[in-house]
Each structure stands twice: as structure tokens, then as C-alpha cells.
Specification:
Blueprint lengths: L1 H24 L3 H24 L2 H4 L5 H23 L5 H20 L10 E2 L5 H11 L3 H14 L5 E2 L9 H20 L6 H24 L5
Antiparallel strand pairs: 1-2
Helix pairs in contact: 1-2, 1-4, 2-4, 4-5, 4-6, 5-7, 8-9
Length: 227
């Protein structure tokens, strides 16, 4: 029962995704990102709980990995793709093709067994479309740069750059976790203020995102023997 409750907890993320989608359909973007944030919390804690209870051994007929992928696709890709396409921030004729491109390429990415490197970096843009959508709403660039940025991320899904996993990459883990804590606090403030935040908050959020994307190169510079 305890082991199965972990699967139920993970599956709650799908319900959260539905609520987030309903908020998005109503144009309640801050609420949508709030629900997606809750899904992130569920995703962050269910794995350690599952390992602690040895769920894979206790319930061999239930695939936690498959369940996790289903929920992650909804919360990281499908709902954010709708938000990106329906936001009104893209060039109008590109919105639907780009939204479709997000879900199609992300489905392929999720099926790629090489999506992570041996040292737990993501290979290619890791389908973090909830993050991409968050920054689209935060920065609100003109439509042409916005559409080009989404297109670039779609292409980068298949480019073998290494993107930092701030929790599982061991090098500089304490720094990475501290930065993620700062990011989480600032993101909550941003949502509570409906994206109307001061410039220093925006700059800090963008700097942390840049570090996550370029973190592998930074680690190599700090400690050339990282691998």
C-alpha cells in the first residue's frame, strides 16, 4: 500500500496538469504556471520517495518510469505548448505550427534513450517547455523574435549540446541547488505579481537560466577534470 501510494502521488501530477490546462484556456497564465510549479514539486519528490520504499521491487508490474514520462509530457510539454501557441505573443501564423512542433519533437525526445549523458547532463534542449513558456511570458519579446526563439529551441532539441541537470549533476551540486532555490523564490514572486516584477528580478531569473543552459561549459572552466 505504501509503495502504491507513491504511484498515486506521481499520477496526481496528471490531475494537476488538467487544472493547469483549464487555467490556460481561461487565459489565467499566472495560475497555470502556479499549477505547473506544483507539478514540478511532485516530480522532484516522488523519485526519492520511490527509491526509499523500493517501489520497483515491491510492485514489479507497475512501471514508475512509464508513469513519470506520461505525467512529465503533460506538465513539461503539452500544457506549456498550448500556452505558447495561445499566448498571442508569437507571429499569428506561426503559433499553431510551432505549438505542434513543440509536442512532436518533445515526444521524439522523450523516446530517445540517449536523452541523458553518463554524468546526468541532458543531451540537447531537454523539452523544458514549461520553463521556455515562463520566460516567454516574463520577457514578452516582439512576435518575430519570440517565434524565432521557439523555433530555435525546437531545433536545439536535436543538437548534442549538454544542458545541466541542477539536481543530478554532482559537480557544483551545492551551488546548483542554491541557484535553483533562488530561482524558485523569484519565480513565485513573479507569479504572485502576474509577471510585473522589477528589472533586477528579471535579470536574476535570466542569469540563472543562462547558467543552467551553459552550466556544462562553466563546470569545464572551473574544473577541467569534471569528466
Amino acid at each position: 500500500m505504501a509503495a502504491f501510494s507513491i504511484h498515486v502521488f506521481t499520477a496526481l501530477g496528471a490531475g494537476v496538469a488538467l487544472i493547469a490546462m483549464m487555467s490556460a484556456v481561461r487565459g489565467e497564465w499566472a495560475a497555470m504556471f502556479g499549477w505547473l510549479g506544483l507539478a514540478l514539486v511532485i516530480d522532484a519528490v516522488d523519485g526519492p520517495m520511490a527509491r526509499r520504499l523500493d517501489v520497483g521491487r515491491v510492485l514489479p508490474n507497475w512501471s514508475g518510469d512509464a508513469l513519470d514520462f506520461v505525467v512529465d509530457f503533460l506538465t513539461y510539454v503539452f500544457v506549456p505548448a498550448y500556452a505558447i501557441a495561445a499566448s498571442g505573443l508569437l507571429v499569428p501564423w506561426t503559433a499553431v505550427p510551432l505549438g505542434a512542433g513543440v509536442v512532436v519533437t518533445s515526444a521524439l525526445y522523450f523516446a530517445d534513450r540517449r536523452m541523458k549523458t553518463d554524468d546526468n547532463h541532458f543531451r540537447g534542449f531537454p523539452a523544458l517547455w514549461n520553463g521556455a513558456a515562463f520566460y516567454l511570458f516574463l520577457l514578452r519579446p516582439p512576435p518575430v523574435p519570440a517565434s524565432l526563439s521557439i523555433f530555435a529551441l525546437i531545433v536545439l532539441t536535436f543538437v548534442p549540446l549538454h544542458v545541466l541537470h541542477p539536481v543530478r549533476v554532482r559537480r557544483l551540486r551545492n551551488l546548483n541547488l542554491a541557484l535553483m532555490a533562488v530561482w524558485a523564490v523569484l519565480a513565485v514572486i513573479t507569479l504572485l505579481r502576474d509577471f510585473a516584477v522589477a528589472l533586477p528580478v528579471t535579470i536574476t531569473l535570466c542569469a540563472i537560466a543562462l547558467y543552467i543552459v551553459c552550466g556544462d561549459a562553466v563546470i569545464r572552466l572551473v574544473k577541467p577534470s569534471a569528466r
